[in-house]
Amino acid sequence: MIRRTPFILLVSAPSGAGKTTVGEALLGHAPNLRRVTTCTTRAPRGAEVQGVDYHFLSADDFAARVGRGEFLEHATVYGRSYGTLRSSVLELLGEGRDVLLIIDVQGADLVRRAAQSDPILVRALVTVFLTPPTMSQLEQRLRGRGSDSEESLRCRLESARSEAARWTEFDYLLLSDTRESDLARLRAIHDAEALRRDRQDFQLSD
Length: 206
What we know:
five-stranded parallel β-sheet; alpha/beta; four-stranded mixed β-sheet; globular; Rossmann fold; 206 residues
């Protein structure tokens, strides 16, 4: 009989590299993997559901949780705050679920630092950095989205260059190609981590 200790698969990348696309695709191929529902102070959009798409919090509630140290990572983007609750991650791990975190490079650094003081998290955390092999390819992807002004695009590219230089802080480097190949290699990382000897509680049955 075998039981396995679950782990956290953190996927990070420069803006526009495709981390959300490949991360969410992995959910359909890993039945034991769950994505954490993050918190935000922005209002729900369209058919978004409280507790499913996000935990929608007031600005005061969010700030109070920050003060109590409840977030593994949090950031404010365009006046709206976002964060990952430590309790949400630990709850899924406690249920025996692998946890998927899709977070920007700054957030990944905060999670890594927070994990250093928590023996459960430091053992569980596995980090993957996804990036196209060249800046020109990253620029093509950002332009392909058609959602940024030229000024915004230049700012994103400048940030992406500095973020890409931090790939050595991660356990795995995944040089992005096609969505299919990115997914295949991310699945391979997930499968390999699930088979690590130090995650197993194995006894040979009769």
